[in-house]
Amino acid sequence: MTQNIYDNPDFFSAYAALPRSREGLEGAPEWPSVRALLPPMRGLRVLDLGCGYGWFCRWAREAGAASITGVDVSAMMLARAAELAGDPAVTYLRADLETFAPSGTFDLAYSSLALHYVVDLGRLFAAVNGALAPGGAFVFTAEHPLFTAPRRPGWVRDAEGRATWPIDSYLIEGPRVTDWLAPDVVKQHRTIGTLLTVLLRAGFVIGHVEEWGPTDAQVAERPALAAERDRPTFLIVAAHKPPNGTIERQ
Amino acid sequence: MTQNIYDNPDFFSAYAALPRSREGLEGAPEWPSVRALLPPMRGLRVLDLGCGYGWFCRWAREAGAASITGVDVSAMMLARAAELAGDPAVTYLRADLETFAPSGTFDLAYSSLALHYVVDLGRLFAAVNGALAPGGAFVFTAEHPLFTAPRRPGWVRDAEGRATWPIDSYLIEGPRVTDWLAPDVVKQHRTIGTLLTVLLRAGFVIGHVEEWGPTDAQVAERPALAAERDRPTFLIVAAHKPPNGTIERQ
Q1: Residue B54 contacts by C-beta under 8 Å, 6 or more apart in sequence?
Q2: Angle between helices A9-16 and A75-84 (to 10 degrees)
Q3: Which of B108, B117, B114, B110 is nearest to B140 (CA)?
Q4: What is the CA A61 to chain-centroid distance, rounded?
Q5: Which of A179, A197, B114, B119 falls between 20 and 30 A from B187, CA-CA?
């Protein structure tokens, strides 16, 4: 089973204090870039993998989605999501993404910053592909491998006082244990190449790959975001299932 | 015009001493991974962008390609390529990849470690797409953005003596001036995301993205290659033009 750090009360409290927890999608600086990749939501059947508080589920509903299924492993997150919801078109399911098998058919699968907890991404991507209608979209964000790679993550000052990010072990994939909001949080480091290879093998066509950086306006508002330009934190990918359901090859 | 550092005699001499120059494809550790992505060569019309000494052109001919066009901006490289060749099916052209417009139709476009010199990659990729037959393949390597990104590239020892690679400016694309074999070599830094976006916009379907690392056998033979696992140098991409000549979209 995936580590369920979100049901650790200390972690949950710290997570609840993040801008993206307090302010929802508007508190997530990468959200405008993600939103630009989403199809028109009206009438769509939406699956949200790692829905957390359900901010995206509620946004999708307001944007006209026909039905939304939010999945999360954390009982505490889902309890909070349920508090904030109450729409019969929104269903929350507690499930582990290592074993989750979607039932039903979806037009859009979405996932925000959850996939770096999943060990068996090939299984999950194949399950998502199987649950999508032909032509269906899969849009997700994950932590960038530059962020997850180092054995000792953290900015280092060089001789001139300039901050650099000490990369090592970039091609050595697998678990990374960090102290992020709580001790011993386990994330799965994998390269962009591996992530895209797993996606292609699951039958997806790659539509967009973005290593997210802030706009000048975002940096003016939140100067700390400038560090993203030195070392990005977020990877954004859009893919789709071919309209005929299988990959067109030469 | 792209900087033509290869016609600098000092650079040329230093380049000639590299294993990949002396030993050809077998001296390039990434070659087995690249070769695995190539289509069966028999009967193919092949375009090699940045052919250098022509090692790949000769390999392609020996592997059964019907015709090979090798393009390079360096007169000194092409003179050396001509020395080693003499096959009427192999044509060498001197051209700058910033402005090169292929004539004829090709089944495979190939490029090894040349694209990081090209400023206007969108123009070149569109030209390559236009010159490929429907279903044609485009397989290339480029320097990995982790290698090109830093303002001060070079391994740094941390407090425990472990080597790390100091990343900064990763999202700040554009020229990087380094001393590689000669002073003031200008390479174009761009992210994986940008490279793939330019490829998609040019009409290609992405088939494979690999951040190259050595096998255990390669590390046993050349221990210095182990550092690639900490910070890869090579990116390998395979794409193709859709069989019907245009991108299939939902």
Answers
A1: B48, B70, B78, B80, B81, B82, B84, B85, B90, B92
A2: 40
A3: B110
A4: 19
A5: A197
B9/chain A closest Cα distance in angstroms? 34
Chain B CB within 8 Å of residue A203 CB = no
Tell me which chain B residues have a C-beta less than 8 angstroms from the C-beta of A167. 146, 164-167, 230-231
Question: pLDDT tens digits for A173-217?
Answer: 999 998 877 788 899 999 999 999 999 999 999 999 999 999 999
Over the stretch B1-39, which tens digit does the pLDDT of each residue have?
Answer: 667 888 888 888 888 888 888 888 989 999 999 999 999
Distance spanning both ends of chain B, measured CA to CA: 39
- Token readout for A128 is 């998502």
- Report how many Cβ contacts below 8 Å link chain A to chain B: 131
CA A96 to chain centre: 15
Please report the ipTM that was assigned to this predicted complex.
0.93
Of the candidates B33, B43, B249, the residue with the CA atom closest to the CA atom of residue B136: B43
Give the three-state DSSP class for B230: helix
What b-and-e string marks burial along A224-233, b requiring 16 or more CB atoms within 10 Å of the CB?
Answer: ebebbebbbb
Best B158, B164, B189, B231 member to test A by mutation, with max A CBs in 10 Å, is: B164
Q: For residue B106, which residues of chain A lie inside 8 Å, CB to CB?
A: none
Residue A106 near residue A127, CB atoms below 8 Å:
no
Listed in sequence order, the residues at least 6 apart from B161 whose beta carbon sits closer than 8 Å to its beta carbon are none
pTM tops 0.90, yes or no: yes
State the helix-helix crossing angle for A192-201 and A121-131, rounded to 10 degrees: 40
**Subunit contact A206:B208, Cβ cutoff 8 A:** no
Q: Could you tell me the CA-to-CA distances from A44 to A31, A47, A60, A148, B184 in Å, in that order?
A: 19, 10, 9, 33, 54
- Predicted pLDDT at A1: 61
- Report the alpha-carbon distance of residue B153 to residue B157 in Å, rounded: 13
Task: Name the pLDDT band for A103 (thresholds 50, 70, 90).
Answer: very high
Residue B50 in tokens: 């940045």
**Among candidates A137, A170, A232 on the partner chain, residue whose Cβ is nearest the Cβ of B170:** A232
